[in-house]
Design brief:
- The chain has 3 helices and 6 strands, in the order αααββββββ.
- The protein is of the alpha+beta class.
- The strands form 2 sheets. It has a 3-stranded mixed β-sheet with strand order 1-3-2, with no helix packed on it. The protein has a 3-stranded antiparallel β-sheet with strand order 4-5-6, with no helix packed on it.
């Protein structure tokens, strides 16, 4: 998750938290960026202002999922039934790879 999104922080605010000289702010922001799942659990559609699209992983979804301008693309390639999702930035074309074979585009 983008740090501070739940408080309507924009992308510049999120980066400032991640780069903060205050260790507590920085550590909390990094933990939120890596592990938080509030947005996806609540299916929150709010935009993260200040950027077009934010692609995130570490939360496995069966298919890429877009919530506002945040796109979840971790489709579980490390699991037997998962696949690797590749997004072409700009065109937004999605490619999927399973078991070493190309499955096409969406």
């Amino acid at each position: 998750e983008s740090p501070g999104w739940e408080n309507n922080f924009d992308w510049a605010d999120a980066i400032a938290l991640l780069e903060s000289s205050n260790k507590e702010f920085r550590d909390n922001a990094v933990a939120q960026a890596l592990y938080a799942r509030k947005r996806i659990c609540s299916m929150d559609q709010r935009q993260v202002e200040g950027l077009r699209t934010l692609y995130v992983g570490h939360t496995t979804v069966p298919e890429p999922l877009k919530l506002g301008n945040v796109v979840y693309i971790d489709t579980g390639c490390s699991f037997p039934d998962g696949k690797l999702t590749i997004i072409e930035i700009g065109s937004e074309h999605q490619h999927f790879v399973t078991d070493g074979r190309h499955d096409g585009t969406a």
